[in-house]
Specification:
- By secondary structure, the protein is of the alpha/beta class.
- It has two domains: 131 residues, Leucine Dehydrogenase, chain A, domain 1 (Rossmann fold, 3-Layer(aba) Sandwich), CATH 3.40.50; 136 residues, NAD(P)-binding Rossmann-like Domain (Rossmann fold).
- The chain is built from ten helices and twelve strands.
- The protein has a six-stranded mixed beta sheet, with helices on both faces. A six-stranded parallel beta sheet has the order 9-8-7-10-11-12, with helices on both faces.
- The longest helix is centred in the C-terminal third of the chain and has 16 residues.
- The chain is globular and about 60 Å long.
- It binds 2'-monophosphoadenosine-5'-diphosphate.
């Protein structure tokens, strides 16, 4: 008889739209790992008790998404260096001694997608990162490792960008400010790390950031083009990409942390895209 599968899941609020169960289901099938992965929609006030209960009942790991990533960092007994830098956790893993390890695989997910899936070279390029919340914090260090010529963080609330970049200034050429501080020249890569797409909004950045060679990347994703990507295409960007690849790559990093095997991402990304096309209106 087969052993019961180990319990994993994603915790967020809302989380019903999450593709993580689909992705991890394919990873489990591909690797032959006995993994059961479910959705957990939990309000912020219940987050702590819910997580502790999940693990005390034998749960092995959780992905953590909006709005719980900072709370998860506070709850973990131990943080990986990259989660510590990020100040946010997107992956919780139960360790052998019953301690909770918090990791952040978002940055690695973005870098894998840019470099391995999309063939985008960030070295010596000018990069604009829009937004200064948890999503930005998670990707700053891995982006700076790629040695961009300049990494500009622009946020609707300029003070948040300024205080965020101060924490990363030792890692490379980074500066932060408001949308008015972006400058008039096009960037090589513009990444939207705001949560604006989730509410169908567009960050009010000037179109001058886009030139004919600019790649625009929305860390958010949806079945149709996000408002940011529509806007980028309207202003003549070279390429507009949404964060499906980042989603699959960060999931693979989490799966690796939990199970010690890194699944192949290309077939899973292809299956996801096929599913999106089949199900699109
Ligand atoms: P996350 O963890 O997803 O980053 P967050 O910490 O709440 O979530 O941060 C949300 C980010 O999206 C912030 O940078 C926020 O800008 P403010 O700091 O000014 O609030 C940004 N954001 C959300 N909606 C936006 C909008 N309509 N236009 C511009 N920026 C927006």
């Amino acid at each position: 008889m087969n052993a019961e599968p180990d319990q994993y899941g994603v915790i967020g609020h809302p989380v019903a739209h999450s593709w993580s169960p689909f992705i991890h289901g394919l990873f489990a099938r591909q690797t032959g790992e006995a993994v059961l992965y479910r959705l957990h929609d939990v309000a912020p006030a219940d987050f702590r008790n819910y997580v502790l209960d999940f693990f005390s009942r034998g749960g092995r790991g959780l992905n953590v998404t909006v709005p719980h990533k900072v709370a998860a960092a506070e709850l973990a007994n131990e943080l990986t260096p990259r989660a510590q830098r990020a100040g946010a956790v997107n992956t919780l893993a139960l360790e052998r001694d019953n301690r909770l390890l918090g990791d952040n695989t978002d940055g690695a997910g973005l870098v894998h997608d840019l470099r391995d899936n999309l063939g985008i070279d960030v070295r010596r390029r000018r990069v604009l990162l829009v937004g200064a919340g948890g999503a930005t914090r998670g990707v700053l260090a891995p982006l700076l490792v790629l040695q961009p010529a300049e990494l500009v963080v622009a946020n609707r609330t300029p003070e948040r960008a300024a205080s965020l970049v101060a924490d990363f200034a030792d890692l490379g050429p980074i500066r932060g400010g408001g949308f008015g501080d972006i400058g008039g020249d096009p960037y090589d890569l513009v990444i939207n790390a705001t949560s604006a797409s989730l509410s169908g909004e567009l960050p009010a950045i000037p179109p001058s950031v886009i030139g004919a060679g600019t790649v625009c990347y929305d860390m958010a994703y949806s079945r149709n083009a996000t408002p940011f990507l529509k806007w980028a295409q309207e202003h003549g960007c070279a390429r507009a990409v949404q964060g499906w690849g980042m989603l699959v790559e960060q999931a693979a990093e989490s799966f690796h942390l939990w199970r010690g095997v890194r699944p192949q991402t290309a077939p899973v990304l292809a299956a996801l895209q096929e599913r999106l096309v089949v199900n699109s209106p």
